[in-house]
Structure formats: structure tokens, C-alpha cells
Amino acid sequence: MNIIVCVKQIPDPASPGALDASTHALKREGKLILDESDAYGVEMALQLVATAGGGEVNIISMAPNGETSGMRTALAMGAAKGLLVSDPALAGSDALTTAKVLAASVTKLGGADLIITGTESSDGYTGTVPEQIAEVLGLPSVTFAKKVKIEGSVLKVDRQSESGYDEVECTLPAVISVTAGVVEPRYPSFKGIMDAKKKPLDVVTASDLAVTPTGWAAAGQKIVNVTQAEARKAGEVIEDDGEAFGKIVAFLENLKLI
Amino acid sequence: MTINNIWVFAQGANGAATTGTLELLTKARSLSSKVTAFVGGDASGFAASLGEHGATKVYATGDLAGKLPGVALSAAMKVIIDGGDSPDVIMFPQNYEGRDTMARLSVKLNRTVLTNNIDLADSTDGVVATTPVFGGNILVATAFSGPGPHLVSFRPKSFVAESASGGAPEIVAVVVPDLGTQGGARVVATHAEQTTGPKLDEAAIVVSGGRGLGEAANYSLIEDLAKLLKGAPGASRAIVDAGWVPYSYQVGQTGKVVKPSVYIAAGISGATQHMVGMKGSKSIIAINKDKEAPIFGIADLGIVGDVHKVLPKLIEALKARS
Ligand SMILES: Cc1cc2nc3c(=O)[nH]c(=O)nc-3n(C[C@H](O)[C@H](O)[C@H](O)COP(=O)(O)OP(=O)(O)OC[C@H]3O[C@@H](n4cnc5c(N)ncnc54)[C@H](O)[C@@H]3O)c2cc1C
Ligand SMILES: Nc1ncnc2c1ncn2[C@@H]1O[C@H](COP(=O)(O)O)[C@@H](O)[C@H]1O
Q: Whose CA is closest to atom 47 on ligand 1?
């Protein structure tokens, strides 16, 4: 069982986001970390390979400036090797170009039985990349997977739905996107972190993959305006002295809701 | 650019068009006189309501027989577009089926997608979609460059559904082509949760709980309070991920968008992804023991206190009244 996991490396969500003044895009500078949304995918892949009793987990990522620290985290968790696509010409790529690059990376690694992505990235959250990768590769896909089992060559997925879940069966190879909370991502061990430094991590450009980068110029979209939304004002804030519940009752009464 | 031909990705549930579908149709007819609803499934039960809301034509695939909608519907759309009915814009709802179909279609047509929007305009800049970022504090307007069909998705409740008293639409049956290996996924069973009380995204009062409740058992405080107020219980993603409540309770960017008369947030910090799902509430009450919690920045009434003290007293007081 060979699995490829797409891992996005993002600016630390703990630090406040900002838009670049000239391009209006999200600023992506400084150290990037492994998107938590993808840590679930890495963990799931490691568990599936362990259950299958053979094979390996490889990771792919597209990021500007040759950034690999987020990928090293995934390698430290137990992934075997990584492929990073880094190319200044890819800055500003839309979801479609990202998917083309990631699909070409899958092919470059020789394909896999299963490709795992997150449902949506923490900073971009278009949530379209997984299905776009599947379409580029001509593969079936199951999005919003919350439980995954492999029986022989059949993938069995509990797919989250608006009102519960569906049981879905799918032939391999396939692409799945996993929801947050599906598994508990492991913390890399000290040995894992040390080993990760020596694991193979290739860095290639878009042209190495024969993908034409579009970047800002041809992303098919252009930001034309950025405005401040009408702000919601904070109202009264009170410390509970044991009687604050009465304020809530009065508030609801005032609105004639009780 | 002038939009002459617009499609809406339309959905039905329990034999009726979903509210989200009617919202998109209402917006679509303000942009173009030619509005087509594309239904993945059987539309016969609710085609009239699609017509009332502005659709003059309805494409319907009929039952998908367990195929996943994304792959099947994008393929069906591509056939129609290749056949000559090529829309300028296709509006999708920001939900599972909408997102998956739009993504697959974007590759087939080699077109970009704009997601998570709350508005659409046909302006001198072209077709411009507006999306909120940073918890809705900033609005980014993005124009499509290049040729259509422009693929764009919208967050629920971005528009208000209004009937236009339109007549019966023309219904055109659509065939899903052979999907080959891409169609290798099948739904073999469906599980729906039993719910009682008002629906989360329609309730006049929503009471949501977060990690501040401490443990799963304490969620009963939220349920009790919601019941007393004839409202719906909701949740932050933190406690959905922790398995305390099902995903259908989640409010926020990846969950439901709610706009009740009153939203009560108990033990919720107010992360940007939570706020985009509830900021549109008429009034917001927050209970949090940390007075610096971001939720207080948007609350009309903020109680700095312990949910384990405030909620039981509130529940008692409401019980005493009824
Ligand atoms: C791509 C993406 C999508 C996301 N989508 C969503 C979404 O749809 N919805 C969503 O909610 N989140 C979403 N999140 C997660 C979001 O970022 C937050 O992690 C989450 O909302 C936090 O939930 P919380 O407020 O319950 O927990 P916390 O942030 O941990 O806050 C708990 C709060 O409880 C307070 N508290 C603790 N004890 C008490 C007490 N005894 N009494 C009173 N207060 C107490 C604390 O002061 C704190 O403010 C998303 C994240 C990402 C990356
Ligand atoms: N630049 C990237 N590098 C690697 N994986 C990515 C990248 N962008 C998106 N993905 C994958 O696609 C998923 C959904 O991303 P998005 O469509 O941007 O919300 C992520 O959770 C990743 O698994």
C-alpha cells in the first residue's frame, strides 16, 4: 500500500494574517508550518500503511521559496520521502494550477494506491484542490472522509454528509480528502525528528514537471478591490457577580423572545 | 461583460428545493433574464418552485443511482456546454455537492474557481465576486479575467430568497455520460441523524457551546437551554472534532451559517472561522471566563463568567417562568 499525502505549508495561524499591499494576496513570509488540516492526512496514511503491513507514505507540497519545515514535520511523523515543487513563477497560483502541479507531482513519484488531502486548507480553504487533483489524474474520489478502511483493492469510506454520513465504496487508486479530527495526529518523536533530517526531499520546479505556471498574470482572476466590512460593535460586557444570568433573561425579554 | 446566460446548481431535499437554491436563483435573476437551474436528481417535485424563483429552464439528471454527485454532475454539465448551451456564469452553493461539482468542472473546462463568496456583480471590471476574509472583517472583490463559464460558489444566506411569481420552467432531461474509472465510487448506505426541534440554520434562537464547557457531558446544559428557548443547539468545531456532538451541529466556515434573532455562545473563544458562521445574527450574547476572548468584540451582551455557574442559573430562571 503506497500512499501520497498532499501537505500544505502555511504561515503559523497563531500569528495574525495580513494582505500584501500590492497583490492583495495573503502574505506568506517567514517560516511555514505543516497545516493542521494535513496532519490528519499524514496520520491516516501512516495508519493505513501499517494496517496493510507494507508500503510507504510519501508527501508532496507546493510552496514558494523552497520552504520545507512543514514537510520535515510530516517526515518526522513517519513519512518516507518528500517532493517539493518550488518555483517563483508559481506564486499567486489559483487552486486549479495548484492541483495540476500536485497531480504532476503524484505522477513524478510513480503514482500511488491512494492520494490523501485535507478537506480544506487553513489559509486558502477553497476546498476544491482534492477534486481537481482527482479530475486531472482521471481518478475516482471521495471527499469529506471521516473513517477509512481498505479491504483488498476496495476503499471503504464513511463520508460525512449534511445530516449524518454515507457509506461509500471506491476502487483504488483513488483520491480522498479527510476531515479534521478523523484521527489523532502523533507528535514526532525525538528520533523521528533526527531521522527526518536525513530523509530524501527533492525540490523541483514547475518546468521539471512540465506544468506551465500561470502565477499572478494568468490565474484567471484578479483582485479589484479590498474594503473594510461594516464592523459589529461590542456592546455591554459585565463581570458575573452571581446574578449575570438575570441580564440575559432581561435581554431576551426585551426582544420579546421569552 | 454582460451576463446573458446564468446557471444555478440547484438542490432538492425531501421533495422541495433547498432554501440555498432559492437564494441563488433570486440573485441570478437580478443579473440575467436567462436563468437555468441544474438539478442533479429528479426535479419533478419542485420544478415549479424553481420557476417561481426565476428559473426559465431546468436541467435534471434524474436519480444518480449511488454515483457521487461531483463526478457525475460535472460530466453532465460538460456535455451540455459542449453541446452549445454555454453559460457565462455558474453559481454553486458552498456545500459538499456544489464544491465537488465545481472543482471537477473547473478541470474539464480549464477555468479558475472563486469560492466562499457572499456577493456577485456584473460591473465594468467584469464579473466580480466578493469574499469575506479574516472572520469577515475585510471584503475582497475579485474579478474573473479570461473567458467564461465563470465558476463561483457562495456561502449560505448570502442572499435572501424571494419568489418572483415566475411561471413553470421548461424541463430538459440530461444524461450522465459514462464516467469510466473516475466513476469508481458508489454510495452503498446512508445514515441520517434523528433530529428534533427547529433546524440549526432556521432557528430563531441558537445556543452554541464550545471547549469552555470542559467535557462532553456538560453539553446537556446547551441542549437544555436551547429547548427552553425553543431554539437549536449548535457547537464550535473544537467540540465537534472532539466527538462531543455530531458535525451537523457545527457553526462556522466549514459548518452551518446561522442568522438567528439571538445567538448565545457559551465557552466559545470566537475564532475567525467560527465568527463567519454567526456574525450575521441580529443579537449576540457571549459567556466566557476570559474577558479578552475575541467573541466579546462582537457581542451585544458579554458575560465574563464561568459557564458552569451562569448556565445552570439561567436554566433555572427560565424554568421558573414557564
Ligand atoms: C480551515 C478551518 C476551518 C474551521 N472551521 C470552523 C468552523 O466551521 N467552526 C468553528 O467553530 N471553528 C472552525 N475552525 C476552528 C477554529 O479555528 C477554532 O479552533 C474553534 O472555533 C475553537 O473552538 P472553541 O471556541 O470551542 O475553543 P477554544 O478556542 O479553545 O475556546 C474555548 C473558550 O472557552 C473559554 N472557557 C474555558 N473554560 C470556561 C468556563 N468554565 N466558562 C466560560 N468560558 C470558558 C476560554 O476562555 C476560551 O475562550 C476552523 C479551523 C480551520 C483551520
Ligand atoms: N500548495 C499545496 N501543497 C500541498 N498540498 C496542497 C496545497 N494546496 C492545497 N493542498 C491540498 O489540498 C487540500 C485542500 O486545499 P484547498 O483546496 O486549498 O482548501 C489541502 O488540505 C492539501 O491537502
A: B290
